[in-house]
Design a protein that fits this description.
The protein is an all-alpha fold and 165 residues long. The protein contains 5 helices and no strands. Helix 2 packs antiparallel against helix 3 and helix 3 packs antiparallel against helix 4.
Length: 165
């Protein structure tokens, strides 16, 4: 039981650290404007930044609710990590996509946003499955991400011969 407590403390510490990093990265909670978009940012880049901000708000709202429900025994230990951590990684990738926007990397942005949305959708389903209220930023963030759903290019299939030529 002591090892499980240590694992839980480690996970909670990791989530807190990640939350603080996400808040710093995305300027959340500081009253600051969106992270340094260039003055000549395109409308698409500004919109993308707003989507990432909305998804970051959703992720930050999801963390304490999911962990609280998990701690209360609503679902097995580690359930939140399975859905929150992949969403967080994708959120960081989406933020990096905005930073690299002018370098032609925006094609990956829609895919990263889609991954965040899938993860946050999984968090919402997890919470709903145990009758825990889904924080309003989650559906709001998911609604923002919907507009980019069709813009992720399909992955290229590997060659049938395994690449041998």
């Amino acid at each position: 039981m002591n090892a499980l407590s240590a694992v839980k403390r480690l996970f909670l510490g990791l989530v807190l650290c990640v939350s603080v990093a996400a808040c710093s990265l995305f300027g959340l909670g500081s009253g600051a404007s969106a992270p340094g978009l260039p003055p000549d940012a395109s409308a698409a880049q500004v919109n993308a930044d707003e989507v990432v901000q909305g998804l970051a708000d959703a992720w930050n709202a999801a963390v304490p609710v999911c962990l609280g429900a998990e701690k209360a025994g609503a679902f097995p230990a580690g359930s939140c990590a399975k859905v929150l951590l992949p969403a967080h990684d994708a959120l960081l990738a989406a933020g990096a996509g905005i930073d690299a926007w002018n370098q032609g990397q925006q094609g990956n942005f829609a895919c990263a946003v889609g991954e965040v949305a899938v993860g946050l959708g999984d968090v919402a389903k997890l919470l709903e499955s145990v009758n825990v209220a889904v924080p309003p930023p989650i559906p709001a963030g998911l609604a923002m991400a919907e507009g980019l759903a069709g813009y992720c290019p399909a992955p290229k299939a590997p060659p049938l011969d395994g690449g041998a030529g």
